[in-house]
Amino acid sequence: MDPALAAQISEAVAEKMLQYRRDESGWKICREGNRVSVSWRPSVEFPGNLYRGEGIVNGTPEQVWDCVKPLAGTLRDKWDENVNSFEIIESITDTQCVSRTTTPSAVMKLISPRDFVDLVLVKTYEDGTISSNATSVEYLLCPPKPGYVRGFNHPCGCFCGPLPGTGGGRCYLAQPSPWGDQVIPTSL
Length: 188
Hints:
Elements (H helix, E strand, L loop, with lengths): L2 H20 L5 E6 L2 E7 L6 E9 L3 H8 L6 H5 L5 E9 L2 E8 L10 E11 L5 E7 L12 E2 L5 E7 L6 E8 L12
Parallel strand pairs: 6-8
Antiparallel strand pairs: 1-2, 2-3, 3-10, 4-5, 5-6, 6-7, 7-9, 9-10
């Protein structure tokens, strides 16, 4: 992938994730408990809703990040049942890559196994916050895997940063609905 184009797309996605993180308007809580909340609001960019989960986790941002970062061979490979595999298709820089993520079928196999190809940017901010920022990209050298349907991710990401006044980490997630015009329930 052209590095200049990748940088342009990635920075736009990172800025969109910061907007989701900072904008508190319109979010409605659909689930809360055990220091975790899940909220939603209608998207202005595509038919459907945006969802975000927020939680407080004991540990440093680096420790929390090691558990949630979307890369092959990480702890997330072990605990995330919604991911079959992560694969780096192309490393563009030390913080930017094109990756493939495969997911299993869902809802009693009504949703086929998916194959996502995303441009991913990992950023570290001055306050110690670490973020992943991703969106689907067309990548001709990576056709869908046999038995999988090519999925599409709107801009999405994860923030993990220090919680002011504590020695712990704060993990903030923003994940737009990857199903486009399909709507995930707003009450859980």
